[in-house]
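User: Could you check the structure of this?
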Amino acid sequence: NRDVVCIAAESASDYFRKNPTATTFSLCINDGMNFCECPSCQALDAPMRKAKGGWNTYSDSYFHFVSEVARIVQTTDPGKYLGCYAYWGVEPTPRGIEKLPGNVVIALTQDTSQHFDPDYKQVDRYLWMAWSKVASHLGKYDYYGLGWLTPRYFPRLAADDIKFIK
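Assistant: Sure, the predicted structure tokens are below.
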């Protein structure tokens, strides 16, 4: 919806105007699986893909939205960025976008502590490599303590992952 794109771009510009030293505005998805399912978005996501966890993937419609907002923000607020997670329902790269605009920063969410499982590690590495081709700016949001009462300790897995990312 073009109106939603314009509202998001205006919100980013308003934020940058009120916070002139800020460099990034968040366009991250909500922590849930509620995505637009209007006919236009459904068409962008068709055929529907399943993510590694078995849930539907909305990367195509979501990153289409992000790209449209980013193009406007490049004009209205040069040198500013939009931050997004590649997470849950938008973890896989979008199929219809070869390269995101240069002002989009992606944080790929992963759980390196699970890399003792070679298959899990391989999927994470594949996603990192795929995103490194689509995003000019790519970082990692790692779940070092997700769902645990105490921090998990896995220095060899973390070191191996850092070397891979470098």
